[in-house]
Amino acid sequence: MAITKLHEIHDRRRSRNVGLGLVLGLFVALLMGLTVVKVTVLDPARAAQEVSR
Amino acid sequence: MTDVTISLEGGRQDSREAGFGDYFALLKPRVMSLVVFTAFAGLIVAPGGLHPFLGFFAILCIAIGGGASGALNMWYDSDIDRVMRRTQSRPIPAGRVSREEALGLGLTLSAFAVIMLWLATNVIAAGLLAFTIFFYVVVYTMWLKRATPQNIVIGGAAGAFPPMIGWAAVTGDVTLSSVLMFMLIFMWTPPHFWSLALFMNADYDKAKVPMLTVTHGKRATRNHILVYTILLAGFAAAMFATPLAGWTYLVVAVVMNALFVRGAITLWKRDEDEAEADGYKAEKAFFKLSLAYTFLHFMALMVDKALFSFGIGGPF
C-alpha cells in the first residue's frame, strides 16, 4: 500500500538526497574545471598542439 | 532505509534520521569560516601567482580538510559533547547522526581533500594539510585535550596551519613569512579561548576537560593570558621583518596590539569578585576584541599586498 501522508522524516530524507546530488554534481564540475585548467591554461603549448590535431 | 522499516521501528528511529544539514554541521562550519579566511589570506599574500580556479580549488580543499577534522573531532569527543551544554545539540549527542557515520565522513573527506589539493597544487601544501588533520585529530583531540591544561596551546597549532597551507599552495615552500602567519594565530589562540573559558568555566568543569581555569584556577589563567598576549605582540611586530608588512599593517598592528595588551592587563588586574560583580564584562569584551584582532591583521596584510601591486607603498 502506498504511503500517502508525508511525514517530517520524508523532508529530511529529501534534503539528504538533494544535498548529496548537488555535492556530486559540484564534484563533477570541479573535476572538469580542474582538468580544463591543468590541460589548457597551465600548458598553452600542449593546448595548441591538441587543437592543431 | 525503506518506509517499511520506519513503520516497524516506530517513533524512536523516526526522530533520529538526519537531514543534509546535520552532516554539514559535523564539519563545524563556523570554525571552517576562520580556516577559509586565513587560508585565503595566505594564498593572496604569497609571492607569485596561482590561477584563480586553482586558488578557489585549493581553498575549497583546505576548507574540506578543516571540516573533516571537525567531523573526526565530533566522532571522538561525542562523550564530552553529551555533557557540555554548549555542544549537546550537535548531531551526534542529539542522536541524529551515529558516531560511525561521522568517522566515515571524516576519513573520506580527509583523504579527498589531501589528494585533490595535491593534484591541484603541490605536494608541500597537501602534506601540510594532511599533517594539520593528523595533528588536530590525533595529537590534540585524542591525546592532549584530555591530558593537559595546555591543550588550547597545542590545539591552536592545528588552527594556525591554514595560512601556511594557502601560502604553500602558491609557492610550494615554507618561509619565514608563512611561519610568522602561523605564529600569529598560534599565539593568539590561548588568550582567545582562555578569555572564553573565564566566563564559560562551568561547562568545561562538568565535562572534566582539564581547561586551565579548572586545573589551575582563574588567577593563573589571567596570568597566562597576559604572557601570551605580550608574546603575540612580539610576533605581530616580527612581521615587519618580512616583505609582507606595509603601512596598513603598521597601523593595524600598533592599534590592535595596544588594545589587546591593554585588555590583557585589565583582565590580569581583576579578581573573581570584580568579574562576577559586573558579569565578566571585561572578559567578554576581550574575547570580542580577539575576534577582530586576527581578522584585521590578515586583512591588513591583504590590503598591503593589493597596494604594493598598484605601486603604492612598499615593505619596510
Structure in words:
Chain B: Converts heme B (protoheme IX) to heme O by substitution of the vinyl group on carbon 2 of heme B porphyrin ring with a hydroxyethyl farnesyl side group. Chain B: This is Protoheme IX farnesyltransferase. Chain B: It catalyses: heme b + (2E,6E)-farnesyl diphosphate + H2O = Fe(II)-heme o + diphosphate. Chain B: InterPro entries: Protohaem_IX_farnesylTrfase (IPR006369), UbiA_prenyltransferase (IPR000537), UbiA_prenylTrfase_CS (IPR030470), UbiA_sf (IPR044878). The complex is a heterodimer of chains A (about 55) and B (about 325). With about 55 residues, chain A is an all-alpha fold. Chain A has helices spanning about 10-40, 45-50. Chain A has one domain (about 10-50). The termini of chain A are far apart. In chain A, about 0% of the residues are buried. The mean pLDDT of chain A is about 80. In chain B, helix 9 (about 150-170) runs antiparallel to helix 10 (about 175-200) and helix 10 runs antiparallel to helix 16. Chain B is mainly alpha-helical and about 325 residues long. Chain B is flat, with a radius of gyration of 21 Å. Chains A and B meet through helix 1 of A and helix 3, helix 5 and helix 7 of B.
**Fraction of residues in helix of chain B:** over 70%
Binned strand content of chain B: under 5%
Average pLDDT of chain A, to the nearest integer? 82
Distance between the termini of chain B: 63 Å
The arrangement of helices and strands of chain B along the chain is HHHHHHHHHHHHHHHH
Overall SS class of chain B: mainly alpha
CATH architecture call of the largest domain in chain B: Orthogonal Bundle
- Please report the two chains with the greatest interface, counting residues with C-beta closer than 8 angstroms to the partner's C-beta: A-B, 17 and 18 residues
Anisotropy-based shape of chain B: flat
Low-confidence stretches of chain B: 1-14
